[in-house]
Specification:
It contains two helices and no strands. By secondary structure, the protein is an all-alpha fold. It is 90% helix and 0% strand. The chain is rod-shaped and about 50 Å long.
């Protein structure tokens, strides 16, 4: 594996972790936020 491939794989892994964290942290929040705004 070349250096660029390794860097790309690491970047993708980090991005997928960030996305997973965002899904866990931010999915429940919009429901209450939007319902409060619209209601």
């Amino acid at each position: 594996m070349g250096v660029e491939e390794a860097a790309l794989a690491e970047c993708q892994e980090r991005a997928s972790r960030i996305l997973a964290a965002k899904k866990v942290n931010f999915l429940p929040v919009p429901d209450t936020a939007y319902s409060k705004r619209s209601g």
